[in-house]
Amino acid sequence: MRFYEYESKEIVRRAGIPTSKGGFAKTAQEARARAEEVGGPVVIKSQVLTGGRMKAGGVQFADAPDEAAEHAARILELEINGHMPRGVLVDGRVEVAQEYYAGVVWDGLRKQPVMLFSDMGGIDIEEVAERHPDHVGRGHFSNVLPFSDFQAKQVIASVGVTGRALTRLTPILTRLARLFVQRDMTLAEINPLAQLADGSFVAVDAHMEMENEARGRHAELLADLGVGEEETREAREATPFEIAGEEVDAQDHRGVAGNVTEFDGNLGLVIGAGGGSLTLFDAVRAHGGKPANYCEIGGNPSVAKACGLAKLVLQKPGVEKIAVMMSIVSNTRVDIVARGVIKACVELGYEPADKIAIFRIPGAWEEEGFKILERYGVPYADRTVSLNEAAKRAAEAVPA
Amino acid sequence: MSILVDAGTTFIVQGITGREAVNLTRECLDYGVGASIVGGVTPGRKGRDVHGVPVFDTVAQAVEHHGGPIDGSVVTVPPAFTKDAVFEAIAGGVKLVVIVTERIPRADVAAMVEFAAMHDARIIGPNCLGIIVPDVIKMGGIGGPAKDAAKAYSPGPVGVMSRSGGMTTEISSTLTAAGLGQSTAVSIGGDAIIGSTYAELMALFAADGQTEAIVIYTEPGGRMEAQLAQWVAENGDPLPIVAFMAGRFMDEMPGMSFGHAGTIVEGKEDTASEKIARLAAAGIVVAERIEEIPDLVRSKLAERTAA
Amino acid sequence: MRQDALFIGIEVDDEIARNKEVAVKLAEVCPVDIYAQGEDGGVRIVDANVDECVLCELCLDAAPNGTVRVLKLYEDGAVLSH
């Protein structure tokens, strides 16, 4: 889950890392007040969860509070890459002597967090790594043993930083590394980390992302920041159809029948499990099918949940038929899913045989499942029909 | 032979009294020669039994009851308690931990993996279904009830590794139907950080006398396919590998995660098309469809025999 | 007493349906909560859950032999038995 810049800076500040003066504003009036508090020249930055703010005109400079308010009013109305800003951040402009970069990410292969540090801040770190590899320091650190300052010092010194700058930067990178682990971040980045004329350092911009699975253990921080439990902060905001899918999945604790993503096709998909859904979605498209949605069933959901998901998909405007397909199941039951999808058709007043293009779920309890499908005349396939062939039949049953 | 487990492997089930763990225990006891599940652990439930397996409060009690070291553990406790359970198993001398639990934060996974490395132990998973040696033993829910697992898996020369538990069975079933059995199939887990990657298990398969070819199921997200490609280049390509890549549609949707937590594409290297290119460059055949896999394996095997 | 859903039917003999002890036991063993104890203390069938039946047969064991029957309506009312 990605944090807005103003939230990221608050997280950084709470970890004991100095940040530039300023504050968040939701209206032009609030922006004026923030500018007055800062006193002096300010920068007004759109708070959106997307890049390219500068180019889009989402970052403006002002010398006086009134000017700050004018800019804020414009930025608050400015859509950037399809995102409307949540507000603006009004920050004091700092006299920067040099820009640095400090970041921590996961290294999935080493299975450890890795610190990244550069004396070339203010630009994309990947670009620096590509063009000036000797200006990027790296250091993995343990997730079991306690973190010690020297590890940060080593990384900073590796790009040639010495003197007072080194001793002042060391606690900043140390705090960032500790914050990364303690707050379950998947990305913790300060860029630029600015050295001021007096030699001190402040975080001018920060980018933090927290692991979704860990949100529960940071409930207090999230509440403090005003992050609602319903905010998914995905790359694209959830549609009402997708939210309805989450509600279906949440109706009881048995298994999964959800993870719905909306597409604009005419073939409804009731598919699973994780890998099966990916494989089937690719296959339907490869055969010219136009999926109306992506979803996942797994972990042995109840009849009611499978029914709820099938109903949701059947009722989506433009959906002509649904295809019910999974890779071979071992814990989800064929008969339970069969009951669920047939029930959905019947309760919506449809003939299951008309609405289910194909049912291809082999595996646990398939004998019982196939009896049910036969009873209702639903076309079904066993494991001798590949996922690809099943997807082809589904795509052919509902021409685009 | 097989990798990781064999007929003699002893293991415990942590969280054995949970609904899914009770089923899993039954399935493993029924499959093949019958798994040697020497105990189960659920704190506060000492003295109960699950399908004849005695339940203990601690791993130490299970080890004491067994009267010697226990080889493995299947961990099925809720995400908040998994790290502690895995530490307990490893501290208790267990060398192979299969973590079934999903939705464990990465910091915890990384800590478990590091703790395991410190103790010369190995983790499979998290978010996996475990390991199966066809007709011999299964450790975890892989393949489901014994009679279902018997339909999908058969003994033979192909090692299978998959980031999806379900697709491990789908692919093995396709191989079985085509007359190609499996030496060992490993559901390696769907998370961004896992205990054992393809490359980390390749050395075991390469050293296994029964394994003649490898089939892997892969997805977008992460760098472990690139790591495998590198391993192949560095180790003289000891076994032919056929790969299947799902989730190609995700290339059009950066920043979104589908299927498994680990599929989120964070950089260009993580995309399906980039991975396919890397695998192909390492001489790994990438199948377009699952049903092509058996023929691709056969032709790879024939090439090597001819060479 | 008989309760039918789309796929599953449940039959409980009348004399057993009034037995409080059996009602408690049925409610306890059913993993999908098809049985509950009614206001009179006897067996109550929870209509909405009948189609959730997983064919586990635990209810058949919880009541005297043959007094509780699970019918597979999709198989012409075939009676589930051990």
Annotate the secondary structure layout.
The complex is a heterotrimer of chains A (400), B (307) and C (82).
Chain A: H1 5-14, E1 22-25, H2 28-38, E2 42-46, H3 53-56, E3 59-62, H4 65-76, E4 88-92, E5 96-107, E6 112-118, H5 125-131, E7 136-140, H6 149-157, H7 163-182, E8 185-196, E9 201-203, E10 206-210, H8 219-225, H9 240-250, E11 256-262, E12 267-272, H10 274-286, E13 293-298, H11 303-314, E14 321-326, H12 334-347, H13 352-355, E15 356-360, H14 366-375, H15 387-397
Parallel strand pairs in A: 12-14, 14-15
Antiparallel strand pairs in A: 1-4, 2-3, 2-4, 5-6, 5-8, 6-7, 8-9, 8-10, 11-13
Chain B: E1 10-14, H1 19-30, E2 36-41, E3 49-50, E4 53-56, H2 59-66, E5 72-75, H3 79-91, E6 96-99, H4 106-118, E7 122-124, E8 130-133, E9 137-139, H5 146-152, E10 155-162, H6 165-177, E11 182-187, H7 198-207, E12 213-218, H8 224-234, E13 241-245, H9 272-281, E14 285-287, H10 293-306
Parallel strand pairs in B: 1-2, 1-5, 2-4, 5-6, 6-7, 10-11, 10-12, 12-13, 13-14
Antiparallel strand pairs in B: 3-4, 8-9, 8-11
Helix pairs in contact in B: 3-4, 7-8, 8-9
Chain C: E1 2-4, E2 8-12, H1 14-17, H2 20-29, E3 35-37, E4 43-45, H3 58-62, E5 68-72, E6 78-79
Antiparallel strand pairs in C: 1-2, 2-5, 3-4, 5-6
Q: What does the model show?
A:
The complex is a heterotrimer of chains A (400), B (307) and C (82). Chain A is built from 15 helices and 15 strands. Chain A has 400 residues and is an alpha+beta fold. The two termini of chain A are 35 Å apart. The mean pLDDT of chain A is 95. By secondary structure, chain B is α/β, with parallel strands linked by helices. Chain B has one domain: Rossmann fold. In chain B, α3 runs parallel beside α4 and α8 runs parallel beside α9. Chain B is globular. Chain C has 82 residues and is an alpha+beta fold. Chain C has a single domain, classed as Alpha-Beta Plaits, CATH 3.30.70. The model of chain C has no long low-confidence stretch (mean pLDDT 94). The chains are: A alpha+beta (400), B alpha/beta (307), C alpha+beta (82). Chains A and B meet through α10, β13 and α15 of A and α4, α5 and α6 of B.
* CATH architectural group of chain C: 2-Layer Sandwich
The CATH C-level name of chain B is Alpha Beta
Percent of residues in β-strands of chain C: 25-35%
Question: What oligomerization state is this entry in?
Answer: heterotrimer
How much helicity do the residues of chain B have?
Answer: 25-40%
**Shape of chain C from CA axes?**
globular
CATH class of chain C: Alpha Beta
- Indicate the structural class of chain B: alpha/beta
Question: What is the overall silhouette of chain B?
Answer: globular
Largest sheet of chain C: 4 strands, antiparallel
Beta-strand fraction estimate of chain B = 15-25%
Which chain pair shows the most residues in contact?
A-B, 53 and 66 residues
Q: What is the residue-mean pLDDT of chain C, rounded to a whole number?
A: 94
Radius of gyration of chain C: 11 Å
- In helices, the fraction of residues of chain C equals 10-25%
Strand line-up across the major sheet of chain C:
1-2-5-6
Number of strands of chain C: 6
